[in-house]
Each structure stands twice: as C-alpha cells, then as structure tokens.
Amino acid sequence: MSDDSSGRLIILSGPSGAGKSTVVRHLLEECDLPLKLSVSATTRSPRQGEKHGQHYFFLSDEEFQRLREAGGFLECKEVFGLGYWYGTLRDQVTTGLKAGDWVILEIDVQGALALMGDNSLSPITLFIHPGGMTELEHRLRSRGTETEEAIRARLETAQNEMQQMHRYQFEVINGSVGLAVGEICQILKDQKEKHPCSKS
Ligand code: 5GP
After folding, report:
1. What is the CATH classification number for the domain harbouring 63?
2. I need a surface site. Which of 148, 153, 155, 190 has the fewest CB within 10 A?
3. 142-169 per-position pLDDT tens digit
4. Cα distance between residue 62 and residue 58, in whole Å
5. Probe ligand 1: pick from 12, 51, 86, max atoms within 8 Å of CB?
6. What pLDDT does residue 45 have?
C-alpha cells in the first residue's frame, strides 16, 4: 500500500494509561513532519469532551458491523472483553498515504500485530509505556474515567500487552511527555533519512 506513495504508516501502541493520546497530540503539533492521525471508529460511548470525527467516529453496534462486513476496516477488534469494538478505517489510511502523509495509528497491540503481518504496509512501529505496571495503575486510577471493573480489565490486558513489546521496532518510555515526544519525532526523522523521497 505504501509502494505508490511517499506516505508512511506509523503504528503507536502500548497499554491503556501509557499517555499515548497526549503524546500523539503533542507530536502532531510539535514534530516537523507531515503527520496525520487516523481517526478510528468505536462502539464505546464518547467521554466528556470527545467529539465525533475528531477523537473517534462513534458508531452503533449495527453501524460498526455493517461497515465491517463491507470491508471498511483495515483491522478491527473487540477490545478489553467488555463488548466495545474499535477499528482502523481503511479510508483514513489510504487517503492519507496517497496524499504523502505520515499516518499515525494509535491502536491496541492486537490490532498492531494484525497490521504488522501485512507486508504491503511496512509500518514504523513504536511501543510506548510508562516504565512499569505500578506507574500504569497509578495513571489509570488518577485519570478517573473508568469503573473499577474497566480498570481491572485494562490492567490485565496491559500485562499481556507488555509481553508483546519485543515485536515492535522501537520502545519509548513515557516518563515525561516532552522527552517522549522529542524521542519519537527523532525516531521518525531518522526513518525519513532512510526514505528520502517523502513529503516535507
Ligand atoms: P480508549 O477507549 O481509551 O480510547 O481506547 C482503548 C484502546 O483501544 C486503546 O489502547 C487504543 O489504542 C485502542 N484503539 C483505539 N482505536 C483502535 C483501533 O482502531 N483499532 C484497535 N485495534 N485498537 C484501537
């Protein structure tokens, strides 16, 4: 898929609570590359302040499954076993890559592993985490957005996800957002040196 364009696909994943969304937001603002965030679809309800089309496309179960059957997703997964579906919209990725953008997918480990198996994508893969499970639990709890049941499910998933870290090309510890953003931006720029025909 990346053969006929100068765009690149970037997969950023890591356990829930690792601060991925904050890092991605800063990366988009501060990193001097043609980065574009792919907006996923989900069946979970919007959190306070989340906007349809900006944070996610919030779909009903029926809408999601219809799109799934129509081949609208590059990958999709039921995340956390709580019945919520998340999926990478094929259009978001193909449109961005064709325009020469560096398309960022902020997705869970299962989704990332599924896409790593697709040879046509050649993604740059990064795993971001806060340094350990204790810190992760602290961050999840202080966020205050999830029920106890959801926190426990996310911690259990996180434990399994940490074991897949070695499948990624780059590991980034998010101790400070500024440092993590700088590190990721530099990793991506180094990749650009290797693929000099990209849009600037
Ligand atoms: P949240 O509900 O906190 O926004 O996201 C929950 C998890 O779902 C996060 O780990 C996030 O990276 C993941 N996620 C978001 N969008 C997608 C997607 O399109 N596909 C997959 N596989 N995971 C996603």
Report:
1. 3.40.50.300
2. 148
3. 888 888 988 898 899 899 999 999 999 9
4. 12
5. 86
6. 95
User: 108 is written with which tokens?
Assistant: 């869970």
Gap between the Cα atoms of 95 and 200, Å rounded? 17
Decide whether any atom of ligand 1 lies within 6 Å of the 17 Cβ: no
Q: How many residues does the chain have?
A: 200
Rounded to 10 degrees, the C-alpha dihedral 58/80/127/71 comes to -50
Ligand 1 centroid – CA 86 distance (Å) = 6
The answer to whether the CB of 88 is under 6 A from ligand 1 is: yes
Domain assignment of residue 167, given as a range: 8-194
- Examine residue 108 and state whether it is found in any structural domain, yes or no: yes
The answer to whether residue 199 is domain-embedded is: no
Domains in the chain, number: 1
Cα–Cα–Cα angle for 82, 83, 84, rounded to 5 degrees: 100
Ligand 1 centroid vs 111 CA: distance in angstroms?
9
Ligand 1 centre to CA of 184 (Å) is 19
Query: Which stretches of the chain score pLDDT less than 70?
Result: 1-5, 80-82, 195-200
**Whether residue 43 has its Cβ less than 6 Å from ligand 1:** no
